[in-house]
Amino acid sequence: MVKVGCCGWAKSQKQYFENFDVIEIQQTFYKLPDIKTAKSWRDKAPTNFEFTIKASQLITHPPSSPTYKKAGLSISEEKKDKYGFFRPTDEVFQAFEETVEIAKVLECKIIVFQCPASFKPTEENKDNLRVFFSKIRRGHFNFVWEPRGEWKEEEIKALCQELNLSHCVDPFKGKSVWGEMLYLRLHGIGGYSYSYSEEELLALRELIKDEKRPVYVMFNNTNMFQDALRFRKLTER
């Protein structure tokens, strides 16, 4: 199974539903939508349409991240050490419960945890991961982890095996080392402002052609709608 889509709507919902059968919701990372909004997305979508969501940044990113400012989130000084980096705090666990609430409304199977490069492979951060994923209620969800920065493949693989996570990568920047599924996020070669060439899309198809696992290919670049549409057609040939 190969599913192709975008990280965000990219076009109107009507156009998106007409062309794809999966989307990764980005809004949940910045600021969780209300239940009514999530329910309206689910109600408008075709029956077989799949939503995946990006977990709240309150779980993965510290308040010093520019994404907090972008989302209009203001954290008081005394609470700045309570958020991000999977810290085992009530605030982080609450953010997870609120993420799950939206995921259930959207009937998601997949929650993506994207980490900043500042989340380094320190023993403290590794312990935070272990505590977080051992304490939360996993339910029926598949958890996808996208580390960035200085992590070594053997460190990622060991943690993914231990915590039952699927390793997410940009396939033009690295390779996935573990997981029940292959979840790829394409951020543009050299940056977000990018359009993939035919040769690059053919190389991507070659990369996944022998996969026996479910494969998700999610584009997250300026030309994501057209690139995803072109790649979906390539996989159907």
Secondary structure layout plus pairing:
Elements: E1 2-7, H1 13-19, E2 22-25, H2 27-30, H3 35-44, E3 50-54, H4 57-60, H5 66-71, H6 90-105, E4 110-114, H7 123-135, E5 142-146, H8 153-163, E6 166-167, E7 182-186, H9 198-208, E8 215-219, H10 224-236
Parallel strand pairs: 1-2, 1-8, 2-3, 3-4, 4-5, 5-6, 7-8
If you had to describe this structure to a student in words, what would you say it looks like?
- This protein is of the alpha/beta class.
- It has a single domain, classed as Protein of unknown function UPF0759 (TIM Barrel, Alpha-Beta Barrel), CATH 3.20.20.
- Helix content is 40%, strand content 16%.
- The chain has 10 helices and 8 strands.
- The protein has helices at residues 13-19, 27-30, 35-44, 57-60, 66-71, 90-105, 123-135, 153-163, 198-208, 224-236; strands at residues 2-7, 22-25, 50-54, 110-114, 142-146, 166-167, 182-186, 215-219.
- The longest helix is centred in the middle third of the chain and has 16 residues, at 90-105.
- The model has no long low-confidence stretch (mean pLDDT 97).
